[in-house]
Specification:
The protein contains 9 helices and no strands. By secondary structure, it is mainly α. It has a single domain, classed as AhpD-like (Up-down Bundle), CATH 1.20.1290. α1 crosses α2, α4 runs antiparallel to α5 and α4 crosses α9. It is globular and about 45 Å long. The protein starts with a helix and ends in a 14-residue tail after the last helix.
């Protein structure tokens, strides 16, 4: 009986913590809050990032929990279209050079209606190939994840003009979710290669053009 009560209490605390994180995240301007270790070992640009400490992992886990309510709406209520969601996911996976996530979300993208040409276009982000609102968001996400200074003033301005605050929160939540799992996938891959004695995966990995 005591064990059951303890389990229920733990579950209640975990749920309350998740709701508190979500409420705290909802009060702030939408942003992708990176950790210092997202940069400490890496140069700018597309990089194969992985978790480098417990604190690094917990930082991004907290951001994922803060975004969980928005992520649920993205998938259940389709707060943003599935095709746009997958474009965000793929741009994020490419920024972090996560081979596993690129592979998985390439398939999810096809299910969401993206063609192979649509997916390849995410590498160059040629504005002529995109809806201008979506292009503003995708450029903002990529620049935020690949530049120490974050997105340029021009990209930030375009993003804010293209979407209201609620829509920006959904876009950020999609990128935050993907960023967490990109680093988790890269970390798991790194340790599996160490354990099995396989050579490290090449740092620059893009399956979107294959």
């Amino acid at each position: 009986m005591r064990g059951k009560r303890a389990a229920l209490a733990a579950g209640g605390l975990a749920g309350a913590a998740g709701l508190a994180c979500a409420a705290a995240g909802a009060r702030r301007e939408p942003s992708i809050d990176l950790h210092e270790q997202d940069w400490s070992l890496y140069e700018e640009g597309l990089q194969r990032r992985s978790y480098r400490s417990v604190g690094h992992f917990l930082h991004h886990l907290k951001k994922l929990l803060e975004a969980q309510a928005l992520i649920a709406e993205i998938y259940i209520r389709k707060a943003i279209s599935p095709a746009f969601r997958e474009r965000i996911m793929l741009v994020t996976a490419l920024a972090n050079m996560c081979a596993w996530c690129q592979f998985a979300h390439r398939g999810f993208g096809r299910l969401a209606g993206l063609s192979e040409e649509d997916i390849r276009d995410l590498v160059t982000l040629d504005p002529a190939r995109f809806d201008q609102r979506e292009h503003a968001a995708l450029c903002w996400v990529r620049e935020t994840l690949t530049s120490r200074e974050g997105a340029s003033e021009e990209s930030a301005r375009r993003f804010e003009e293209a979407f209201d605050e609620e829509a920006r929160r959904y876009i950020v939540a999609a990128a935050v979710s993907m960023h967490f799992f990109n680093l988790a996938g890269n970390t798991m891959d790194r340790w599996l290669r160490i354990i099995t004695g396989r050579p490290p995966e090449q740092e620059s990995y893009c399956s979107l053009v294959r």
